Structure formats: C-alpha cells, structure tokens
Amino acid sequence: MAHATQRKSNHRKEEKESPVWSRRYWTGKGNVEVAVWSNVIEQDGNDREVFSATIKKTYKDGEEYKESGSFFPEELPLVAFALQDAFSFISATQDRK
User: Fold this and answer.
1) H-state helical runs in the chain
2) First-residue to last-residue Cα distance in the chain
3) Number of neighbours of residue 71 by Cβ within 10 angstroms
4) Largest Cα–Cα distance of the chain, in whole Å?
C-alpha cells in the first residue's frame, strides 16, 4: 500500500537552496556538473531525509555561458562517472545515519 508523503522545507522561499554535494568535471569543451540535493519528507508520521541528483553541462557559446541537459556520445562516460560519484556520496551519507 502506498503511503502519502509530504515535503518539508528547511528553507524560506526567498533563500536559494544549495546542493549538499557537487562536483565539476572538465569535458575538454565545457564542464559536466553533478549535484546532490537533500529533502526532508514526512512519511507515516516520521521525518525522513531523501536525496536526488541533477546533472548538467555548462559551455561557452561565443562570449555567453549556456547550460544543457544534453550530452554528446563522447561525454557519456564522464556523465556516468559523475553520476557514480554522486551515488557513492549518497551511499556513504546514508551509511553514517
């Protein structure tokens, strides 16, 4: 049976949330950045911390910096490595609790 979950915000809306962990990896043409985010949810009357990960590419187009969630085939091994690092961080953090 599914249980309802409700997110609890640890931050006021006017404050920008920051990741609990992030890393950048140089691709040769830009950066791949992976970030891990923490959220507290209420589940069955108990608070529980859950993690999520995001990944993006930052590159320079002329004088302007741009972001993308798309990757060229040659960037995919680095994307996989970055996501594995995020998974390792999350696993180590959960093991300490």
Assistant:
1) 76-95
2) 26
3) 15
4) 53
d(CA 8, CA 28): 40
Query: CATH number of the domain that 34 lies in?
Result: 3.10.450
Q: Is 74 helix (H, G, I), strand (E, B) or coil?
A: helix
Q: Domain containing 64: what range? A: 19-39+51-95
- Residues 50-89: pLDDT tens digits? 999 999 999 999 999 999 999 999 999 999 999 999 999 9
Asked if 23 contacts 34 with a C-beta cutoff of 8 angstroms, the reply is yes
15-32 in b/e burial notation, b at 16+ Cβ within 10 A? eeeebebbbebebeebbb
